[in-house]
Design goal:
348 residues, mainly alpha, three-stranded antiparallel sheet, 14 helices, 52% helix
Length: 348
């Protein structure tokens, strides 16, 4: 059985052998890329082909295709100016690495329902700037009952926004992202705040810049002295904050920085689970978000562990070209030497 796909239909124009990254491993299929006419072919091993597994194969191919489309859409999205990137949409595209068939429209509708519930409860007029924050906290933290997932903090689904919406639980970065998305639709300007060991949401709304949101603790609203007290009790840290520090300093997280935070969480989880195929997919997202040579290296090492030696050699050579004086050059060269020996070894 041969399944042929044209890159334009998949949302890719030039990426080499993209389907391989997105099909499960190990897998009962062989993959081949034709250099003539940019056709991508997925060739099933005849000895393992049977009618019973046909629906599974079609489902896996569909999932792989959707993952490719999501990554390409993400690439295009993050090429925009950081202030123009739709953080909520970008997070949904990241979630497609794990849930490729997720319903984006439903996720946007779920978000809109939260916004509508808040709008229905807002008073017709209010003199206090940023008064909407208390209504957002009430809706998300008390009525919709979104909570921090303390029992299973390292579940990858905590970093997938569709699952956060469905299960009403997550980690600080995704809960904070949700809060920011709701606030944005209500006309407020919020941002991630990378405090030591504790992500919070900062406020750029004039008149209430000294009010922060703790997304992991029921979206509590805390003023700066309360945040300082929280750090003193929880971390024995003498944190000193000011309005300038929480609105215009290195603590303020840009949209790409928040996306990198989500991706690094996932990368660390999958690394711990030794799921090289997932680490590779997340590394592809990282490479789309930032220009770090280390991401190229890590992609090459993932490919090596997946026994895709030709692709691994290409990536590792690219890393050494980008970083000729890298401290780990001897180690990377040792991996390359191992790859070349394996490629020359006759197949039994």
């Amino acid at each position: 059985m041969i399944v042929s796909c044209h890159p334009k239909r998949l949302g890719l124009l030039s990426q080499r052998r993209p389907l391989i990254r997105f099909l499960p491993t190990p897998t009962p299929w062989i993959y081949r890329h034709s250099k003539q006419g940019s056709r991508l072919e997925v060739v099933r091993v005849a000895s393992q082909s049977n009618e019973d597994s046909e629906p599974d194969f079609q489902q896996e191919l569909l999932s792989a295709t959707r993952r490719i489309q999501a990554l390409e859409a993400y690439r295009q999205l993050v090429q925009q100016s950081p202030c123009d990137i739709d953080l909520f949409q970008a997070a949904l595209l990241i979630a497609k690495h794990r849930h490729p068939l997720l319903d984006e429209a439903k996720c946007h509708n779920d978000l809109d329902e939260q916004v509508k519930a808040i709008q229905a409860s807002l008073p017709s007029s209010a003199d206090q700037p940023g008064f909407e924050l208390s209504y957002i906290t009430r809706q998300l933290g008390q009525i919709a009952n979104f909570t921090g997932n303390e029992k299973d903090y390292y579940d990858p689904d905590n970093s997938c926004l569709n699952m956060v919406l469905q299960r009403r639980t997550g980690i600080p970065i995704t809960l904070g992202l949700l809060y920011m998305a709701v606030a944005q639709r209500l006309g407020l300007s919020l941002h991630g705040l990378n405090l030591p060991g504790h992500l919070m949401v900062g406020n750029s709304t004039e008149g209430v810049t000294n009010l922060l949101v703790d997304p992991f603790d029921g979206f509590k609203l805390l003023n700066l002295p309360q945040v300082e007290e929280l750090f003193a009790q929880r971390y024995s840290s003498k944190l000193r904050l000011s309005a300038a520090l929480v609105t215009n300093s290195a603590l303020v997280m840009s949209t790409p920085t928040m996306l990198v935070r989500v991706l690094l969480n996932l990368k660390n989880i999958y690394t711990g689970l030794q799921q090289a195929d997932k680490v590779l997919q997340i590394t592809d997202y990282l490479r789309a978000t930032r220009d770090f040579a280390e991401d190229v290296r890590d992609a090459g090492l993932c490919l090596f562990s997946m026994q895709r030696y030709t692709d691994s050699a290409e990536m590792l050579q690219q890393y050494l070209t980008q970083s000729p004086y890298a401290q780990d050059r001897p180690q990377v060269e040792a991996v390359l030497s191992r790859i070349y020996k394996l490629m020359q070894k006759p197949k039994s």
